[in-house]
Specification:
The complex is a heterodimer of chains A (198) and B (75). Chain A is built from 10 helices and no strands. Chain A is elongated, with a radius of gyration of 22 Å. The chains are: A mainly alpha (198), B mainly alpha (75). Chains A and B meet through helix 1, helix 2, helix 3, helix 6 and helix 7 of A and helix 1, helix 3 and helix 4 of B.
Chain lengths: 198, 75
């Protein structure tokens, strides 16, 4: 039996699909700066981040039909990216069960500690913040254990909602909140240590 | 007796996350208006978040950008 020639309906369907695909690729590429910015802080080096982002886009473009139009494309891309990161075994380092974190320290402890290092009487918050250099922030974040850092990077740097972060990392929303709470404390402790070394 | 500064400290992160209830937001805002000590710490926390976002932001290389563009389906 010979193959029947494509009908007008087939041609239309193929053209519509091609348009949808181009639109998807364009929208995904528009988000690439934001995806890279998050990726760069999820992994240890620029090279790793670049590999990961490239592989993410290769996979996204291959499986574009799995994306539901109208849903959060940036979260969809980040979900691919974190899965690839896990596949690479880059996250084998587990979070230690015990850390020297003083969980009793309240939320203001970083401010209080930095303020004490400023010679002025009653300095404003801008002066206090100046105790932290850009490098010290990058280092302090890099030293936060993976599980906690992932949520900080997604919520505080990527500006994802708790729900999106939960979906991206495939963990319950309650876990996002508790890791965020603890992770921010760890980050602040690291920042306090960095500032005291100044 | 309620220690309002302590309560405010506990509410600070969820307040910045926008995850407090309307009643809690009113409570936090009311305290921040009255208490300069907490208000200053609130402004610090807000600026710190912004600073962390800016300080850790790195743009991708033009090479990677070009590689990503090359992945597009040829028209």
């Amino acid at each position: 039996m010979s193959e029947s020639p494509p009908t007008t309906a087939d041609t239309r369907r193929l053209a519509a699909e091609a348009r949808a695909r181009v639109r998807f690729e364009e929208e995904a590429l528009e988000l690439s700066d934001q995806v890279y910015r998050v990726a760069r802080r999820l992994v240890g080096s620029r090279e790793e981040a670049e590999d990961l982002v490239q592989q993410t886009y290769e996979r996204a473009f291959r499986s574009w039909r799995q994306y539901t139009p109208g849903t959060n494309l940036r979260a969809w891309l980040l979900r691919i990216l974190t899965n690839l990161n896990i596949d690479k075994g880059r996250r084998q380092q587990r979070t230690p069960q015990t850390t020297s974190l003083d969980t009793e320290a309240g939320d203001y402890f970083l401010y209080n500690q930095l303020e004490a290092q400023v010679p002025d009487e009653n300095p404003d918050e801008g002066r206090v913040l100046e105790r932290l250099s850009q490098d010290s922030i990058v280092d302090a974040l890099a030293e936060v254990p993976h599980d906690f850092r992932d949520v900080i990077v997604l919520v505080d740097i990527g500006e994802f909602s708790y729900a999106d972060a939960a979906q991206i990392l495939d963990i319950p929303i309650g876990t996002v909140m508790s890791r965020l709470h603890r992770g921010r404390r760890i980050l602040k402790q690291n920042l306090a240590s960095e500032a005291s070394l100044k | 007796m309620i220690d309002w500064c302590e309560k405010c400290e506990e509410m600070m992160q969820p307040f910045l996350d926008g995850s407090l209830s309307t009643a809690e937001v009113q409570e936090a805002e009311g305290h921040l208006e009255r208490c300069q000590w907490c208000a200053k710490r609130y402004r610090f926390e807000e600026k710190l978040r912004h600073y962390v976002r800016v300080a850790t932001s790195e743009t991708m290389s033009p090479e990677l950008k070009a590689k990503l563009l090359a992945l597009r389906t040829p028209l």
